[in-house]
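Entry type: protein chain
Record version: 2
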Amino acid sequence: MINLLRKFGMDMGAGKKEVLHDNGGVITIRPSEWVEKGSLEFESVFKREQTDSIRTNIEGKKMYSMTSQAKDWFLELQLRSDKYKFNKMLVVEDPFGEAPLTALALFTTIMDYRVRVTVVGDSEQTSFVFEYPAEKRHRIPILGLYPGRKTEVFIELLDENGDSCDRRQFSLNTKPLPAELEKVIGIKKRNEPQKFSSTLIAGGSSFWPFVFDKEGDVRYYLARKLKGCGIFPLSKGRFLCIDDQVPNAVQMYDMDFLGRVGRTYLVKEGVRYAIEKAQGGNLLLTGNSSDGTPSDTSAEGCIMEIDRETGEKIQESRSISLFGEDEQDCVNVELQGVSGVFRAYECCFDLTSLSKALVKNSNYIVGDLCRPVSLEEEPDFQHAVPAMGTEVQYGIQEDILYLYESHPVVTRVCFRGKLGCWDVRSEDTYRPAKALDETGVGMAIWLDVLPADTYDLYVWLGDELQDTGKKITKQK
């Protein structure tokens, strides 16, 4: 492992801070980059076998669900090394690189101890206090740090009566909020008590989901500037994050507040709104119906029930609405210069699940996307023209190909191999509500059905067949 880190130019002590404690011992504080680099060697352990079968000149991206597992395993190995004790604990800032106002403390104790962590607020009402079950190995999430300043943190061991028998105190320094986020937030104080102790704001526009406390201070934000849909809270400290960076929101992540991605769901119809059917149960999503009929902007169109474990669509209906306005607080939040309707939720940091390691899961991509079908008759490739400019943007994640918004729109994609041709048509893809008169605004294609071969990628922009110059090799 050390040789690997040196290969990537990482100083094993880079970014390391050691804080001496009055009660004895030392607290080691590590930055997010330490986990990023230390986890690289474990990515091969978690990535799916299908990933290694694809070679291409299209720029690729790693799946967040795979990199999250690798980071989580790297942190778990630090804990299992028994190197870090209560008087010599490890604290990692923003351990998954997704939530800048979070940290994770790791240490072991000789006996089983319950743990209480207090993130000190500017008032008693704005302090975050969490307790965790008795363990010998402790992963203690720290959420609610203030941006751009120091935040005091207390971690206490509790005896069988719930009394503190030992404690450590330290401070964590965070970077300021992104300038755009800090500039647009203006929270007006109200005379009546605020219903929620902390409030999650999500959706509405291209913006960061964030949480503010009773004093109007931002205490959490997700370092993903999401379009439209944003995130949807689930039970047990998790939420669905709709990835609008892939075409038509066909991809979403099951995440927790530390920024760990447990599973990636693929939904061919696209996702506009989501809730749980029951606590910890299946997902109810709104999107377009399987016949391509677009849902309306009120999110009352097609309702799909998605199996939480397999991503399989169980049933589809158009008879119910997913909105639960009665459960949302009417807070007065002004996002100056940002248009859109934002959702407000009570933010419940259920951190017990966050204190557990992710379970190794090679089946971390589930669901359904369009797949190429074999063509009996080849298109007229002789009349294809070379692709000009950047009308189409391409991306690939493992064995999923993405074609992003273009003009004119992509109406068809063809994979020309030595052994045959395969085809995907835009009418088989999701038609987003913003383009009811068009198809193919974006396409997401699963390549798992392609046989081993080398393929040239062709697209139809309107009626014009273009040779993209992109190649995909599928190995056995």
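Comment: Confidence is low (pLDDT under 50) at residues 1-12, 291-300, 319-332, 432-440.
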